[in-house]
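# step 3/5: fold
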Amino acid sequence: MRLIQLSEKFYTEYGSCPEILKKANRPYVCMMVKIDDILYAIPFRHHISHSYAYITYGKCGLDYTKAVVIKDSSYISANMPWVDSQEWNKVKRDENAIFHAFRSYVRQYKRALKHKDNPRSKSILKYSALQYFDI
């Protein structure tokens, strides 16, 4: 796992997707994770109010629902990202737990794709940024 920011090329291709996070003045810092040979970028966010996340403190942390797929290395910005040292220390300490929890979320998302009529599936599918990628 490592910290990254998404490039302008990524936002040019996916910027119109409403569940993908984008702020005009500040890019999101993401944790890059590889699961089943697919690279994902999980963004750090504030004001997380659901359980599909790794909370670092308060309502801040990594939001699994807004993770995206990194299909091309040009989707990774050359900028050097940073996060608050309190958040970084907690993430580094719990790196293994984050990996397993996110892998579980990806599996749950894939199951939801197979059972789209289930009310719980509809919620996962509606708010996940993974809906814009073939995984």
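# step 4/5: annotate
Helices lie at 8-14, 85-93, 95-114, 119-127.
# step 5/5: archive (pending)
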